[in-house]
């Protein structure tokens, strides 16, 4: 009985797919364009007709930010909008004079942004006694900030929400490495804040010390959970600072501020290399 039901269901699905296959290819492409990049790739597996329709520029043009012509040099030519889309996912573009980078999340097409250390406000960042600006080959940007020695640790970054994708929940991460000698961060609670400028921000406590860290681990210190670093695929470390939601719309032009600071204990800290703050869609819990 159950087997007959399964066979009947497959026959019904096959007939439904067959009815869609009879539609003009442009019509199928238009229908797929109302989904998202992940679904478009899945639909391409349904049949040869769907596979052909899913390659159409009609679809992928909707997944590409409208401002892309100003971001990509005219000398770069792409055979299709689909190839352009995946290039924007895999190869971050430097924007705003090389101080930020932009790319797309592959599954959703949502915009991701990384603010370089050069675009952040770093207290004492212009004093070589406390911070130095260096070049390293694994960095995405021309310069990164190396912490020499400070007792007042404060880094802030701001981002206009109009640059990001509407109706999307984002997470902000500070991206860093430890230099050969990293001191003063052992199990130290660093306050992280994320929120709209002028409104109350969400708060959490993070720890740059990765010696006892690990993926998704948190150590209890007193009454606070310290969010520990996680290693990225590119070899850098990151710590999630917090989340925010982008409503979008023409009238929504908020500015998001992200900060990390330790200004209470005032003991000396050294040895961090700050790459920047990365903003990307939050993981689905």
Automatic annotation (TrEMBL):
Domain called F-box: residue spans: 17-63
Range of residues in the leader sequence: none
InterPro entries: F-box-like_dom_sf, F-box_dom, PP2-like
Protein name: F-box domain-containing protein
Matches recorded under PROSITE patterns: FBOX
A family per Pfam: PP2
PANTHER family noted in UniProt: F-BOX DOMAIN-CONTAINING PROTEIN, F-BOX PROTEIN PP2-B10-RELATED
SMART domains on file: FBOX
């Amino acid at each position: 009985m159950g087997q007959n039901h399964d066979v009947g269901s497959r026959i019904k699905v096959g007939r439904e797919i067959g009815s869609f296959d009879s539609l003009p290819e442009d019509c199928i492409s238009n229908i797929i364009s109302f989904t998202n990049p992940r679904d478009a790739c899945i639909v391409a597996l349904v049949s040869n007709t769907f596979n052909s329709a899913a390659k159409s520029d009609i679809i992928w043009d909707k997944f590409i930010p409208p401002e892309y012509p100003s971001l990509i040099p005219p000398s770069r030519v792409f055979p299709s909008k689909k190839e352009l889309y995946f290039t924007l996912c895999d190869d971050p573009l430097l924007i705003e004079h090389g101080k930020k980078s932009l790319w797309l999340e592959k599954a959703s097409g949502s915009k991701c942004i990384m603010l370089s250390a050069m675009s952040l406000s770093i207290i004492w960042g212009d004093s070589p006694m406390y911070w130095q600006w260096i070049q390293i080959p694994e960095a995405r940007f021309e310069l990164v900030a190396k912490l020499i020695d400070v007792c007042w640790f404060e880094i802030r970054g701001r981002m206009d929400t109009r640059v990001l994708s509407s109706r999307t929940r984002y997470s902000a991460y500070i991206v860093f490495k430890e230099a050969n000698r990293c001191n003063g961060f052992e199990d130290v609670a660093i306050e992280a804040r994320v929120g709209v400028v002028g409104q109350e921000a969400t708060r959490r406590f993070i720890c740059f010390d990765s010696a006892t860290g690990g993926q998704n681990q948190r150590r209890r210190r007193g009454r606070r959970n310290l969010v520990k670093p996680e290693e990225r695929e590119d070899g850098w470390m990151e710590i999630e600072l917090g989340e925010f939601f982008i409503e979008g719309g023409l009238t929504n032009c908020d500015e998001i501020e992200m900060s990390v600071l330790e200004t209470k204990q005032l003991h000396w800290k050294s040895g961090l290399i700050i790459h920047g703050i990365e903003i990307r869609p939050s993981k689905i819990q």
